[in-house]
Amino acid sequence: MAEIKYVIFSLGSQKYCMQLSRINGIEQAYTVVPIPLGAECMKGIIHLRNEVIPVYSLKEKLNIFEEDSSEQQLLLAETHDMVIAFEVDTVLGIEVLQTSDVKKVPKVVQSEETGYLESIVHLPGMDNGNADIVLCISVDNILKDVEFENIKQALVDSQKQESEDCESDET
Length: 171
Hints:
Blueprint: E1 3-11, E2 14-19, E3 23-27, E4 42-48, E5 51-57, H1 58-61, E6 73-79, E7 82-88, E8 90-98, E9 102-103, E10 117-123, E11 132-137, H2 145-170
Parallel strand pairs: 2-11, 5-7
Antiparallel strand pairs: 1-2, 1-8, 3-6, 4-5, 6-7, 9-10, 10-11
């Protein structure tokens, strides 16, 4: 049987996952620069390894209103021709699972609003010995195309403003 690796993370009290093959990195220490009137659920941007990367709040997207963890982390992924950082509360670990542990999203749950769901993953007991059912989030489908375009435009506008600010500082 084939194996698939998943990064498991928490948002509030719920566990979620993404395929590890879609994650380029996990960052712990970062400072988010807010972008006024940015795309919905976008926390702002970070400057990482000479790249400006938008930071997207999965908690806001999923309407999770529990208090943020003090140890929030970023999952960096490439999608729609850009790198985007997904803010999560805590990365819990990486699990190697059999394809038999991965199930399709039930039709009763499928809708336009839940299009971000890639699959349902059955995890062996991580903490308490009991098996967990975890929602797997699709990196490519967490946002609608128009939302990705809004983020790209916000980045362009931010870079344009930054360039204008630098020019005015020089004069």
